Amino acid sequence: MANESRPCPCDIGDRFDYGGRGQEVQVEHIKAYVCKPSASTDKAVIVIHDIFGWQLPNTRYIADMLTTNGYIAICPDFFVGQGAWKPSNDWGTFDEWVKTRNAGKIDKEVDVVLKYLRDQCGAKKIGVIGFCWGGAAVQHLMLKNPHLKAGVSLYGVIRRFDDKSNLLHPTFFIFGEKDDIVPLEQVTSLEQKLKQNCKVDYEVKIYPGQTHGFVHRKREDINPQDKPFIEEGRKDMINWLNKYL
User: Which residues cross the membrane (predicted)?
Assistant: First the structure.
């Protein structure tokens, strides 16, 4: 459970033992994991990692899942060479650590990735998904970037952008009912602000009994009762992208 010494429990219990189906590439100053479907497509999804970085097998598994559903998927290193958080790190230093990795200051990297997807991959319709830290980054991009078509924010840390809700693009928000990092009162506040200010399609969905990180963690082997909600969250994510890309 989250507490003051562990403010972001993305690492609870169950990393994948997963190698990935794609390849690592260099995109200007950014390293990235890219996976492409066998059939040609002009649809792509940028996958924004959580605090554990672009090489986390769980995140690459989701990128490959997107490819299985017909999308070019790319997971760039949005920390740009700065180290990812390690479970062995002292959680008491987390606040200082995350200050040097601002989810609202990734615009330069996103522009580089968009250019790569358009010029090198033939992508014309591009969306974005992100987890935790990356979920906050999705909210930032949906507020600001005109070139993306849709977004899915999975348990994004609302408090980093809680005063802004005038989204530019259709955005789906996934939250767990028992997420200690994103309390339900924050989710309720977000919904109210979106209802007042948002002019595009959006949806906020809370999944019963689920904790932080549930969609991109391998909970099936630990809590079988969570499996339907994990599968539902993944299906909802794909359906949202299918609808708007």
Answer: none
